[in-house]
Amino acid sequence: MNSTAADALRSDPRVAEAKRLLREAVLEHGQGLNRAQPPRPELEAGYQDQLQRLEAARGGKPIWPYLSSGLGNGPWVELADGSVKLDMIGGIGVHGAGHSHPAILDAAVDAALEDTVMQGNLQQHPPSLQMCERLLEVARRQGASLDHCMLSTSGAMANENALKIALHSAAPADRVLAFEHAFAGRSLAMAAITDRPKYREGLPLTLDVDYLPFLDPNDPAGSQQRAVDQLQQLLARHPGRYGAFWAEPIAGEGGYYPGSRAFFAALCQPLREAGIPIIFDEIQSFSRLSQPFAFQHYGLDEFADIVTVGKITQVCATLYGQRFKPKAPILSQTFTGSSSSIAAGLAMLRELEQADCFGPDGANLKRHRYFAAHFQALAEKYPGAVRGPYGEGMMIAFTPGDGRFETAKWFVDTMYAEGLLGFICGSEPARVRFLPSPVTTTTEHIDAAVQLLTGVVERYARGEMSKEG
Ligand SMILES: Cc1ncc(COP(=O)(O)O)c(C=O)c1O
């Protein structure tokens, strides 16, 4: 016998039939969720009660009054108050196949059949190996020297691992270079890199970080020159002290500012010459541009020393080249991920390929153009209310009104009430961003989002925000 008892379980016809029945039931109950709906009055009191309990338990109001019911249909999601929303933010880039997707359901059922809910570094299983190999295979497609992969449970932890790998290899260098408005996560070290003073208020500074200006779309050549000059000055001021260069190839939380091959190459070349490891944080950008990795989209493969992914991959990971392999046991955690997140991550990678997301004329760029044309039309019709579009691929944003945070918040909250989920990014100007599911978003979904958004823009143009204020 060359198969295990578990193989026999997985190929048991009862398992296949149970999965078929589950898919059928989910589809049947979810298919009516196909347009924005207000809350159901009879569910509202119970919903408010749960929200208050949540606020008390977590020690503060949640960002949104959002509690899912547990069922959805593509980008449409039902909440526990019976309302239905069009989800164009996907948990800030996590729900890449929308809600209640059959392939993700199947993967979660396969994972539920495993002997444990969590997987770890001590006791591993084949799907973790497959996930690592798959990510490495995708990352190396255009020639990047990435040989190893370490799974972890959050983007911040994947980034911590990346930073440890870089600093360890460059020891005793101890300073870090990053971009203005960078966002790297919420651990102490990542809070030091993240360029938002409020996010580290009252916290010790654990790293010395120096910042470079990012590419300015209004002055590409000038901003590139300023960034290169700044880099040269810093390298001269702190020779041998930089152990990592940290970059999101397209700025996410910072406001959806795309990078470019020329801009990054101009910085990465001198970094390479100075022997400073280059880290690309792809936790938000993975799978959203013309190639799976944004560094591939910008043709920066030769510079990708260490790369992190998360969010849409369901389980987070740090990829790095052989020459960065740590010489001491500095990497490990109890958990690598849950069985279901690893299985769902593998399914997500398959679905992304099957949805033809990539390529210069792939679905990501096509849908961006479609969405962008609508934004442009809105911006022309309501010039004081909408500027943009900004971003690239399946990372798209607009600047609402005067670009103040309060205005972006009014837009996001009013969109939420109308049934459209988008979120804020950037500051001065603050923007409203969308991270549509690359696997499932259709032009019909984009039309529905634009219709809901137009209602909100019209309300703003009629002065409703100032009346409420
Ligand atoms: C670019 C980037 N890096 C890191 C993180 C942190 O990931 P996590 O929230 O999973 O720790 C995020 C999350 O928004 C991100 O956008």
Structural write-up:
This protein has 16 helices and 19 strands. The strands form five sheets. A seven-stranded mixed beta sheet has the order 5-13-12-11-8-6-7, sandwiched between helices. It starts with a helix and ends with a helix. It has 469 residues and is of the alpha/beta class. It has two domains: 196 residues, Alpha-Beta Complex (Aspartate Aminotransferase, domain 1), CATH 3.90.1150; 243 residues, Type I PLP-dependent aspartate aminotransferase-like (Major domain) (Aspartate Aminotransferase, domain 2). It is globular. Pyridoxal-5'-phosphate binds next to helix 7.
Question: What order do the helices and strands come in, and which of them pair?
Answer:
Layout (H helix, E strand, L loop, with lengths): L4 H6 L2 H18 L10 H18 L9 E6 L2 E4 L4 E4 L2 H4 L8 H11 L5 E3 L5 H14 L8 E5 L2 H16 L4 E5 L8 H6 L14 E5 L7 H18 L4 E6 L2 E2 L5 E2 L2 H13 L4 E5 L11 H4 L8 E4 L6 E5 L14 E4 H16 L8 H19 L4 E7 L2 E6 L4 H14 L1 E2 L1 E3 L5 E4 L8 H19 L2 H5 L1
Parallel strand pairs: 3-17, 6-7, 6-8, 8-11, 11-12
Antiparallel strand pairs: 1-2, 2-3, 4-14, 5-13, 9-10, 12-13, 15-16, 16-19, 18-19
The site of pyridoxal-5'-phosphate has 15 residues, from helix 7.
Features:
469 residues, alpha/beta, Aspartate Aminotransferase, domain 1, Aspartate Aminotransferase, domain 2, seven-stranded mixed beta sheet, four-stranded mixed beta sheet, 16 helices, 19 strands, 43% helix, binds pyridoxal-5'-phosphate
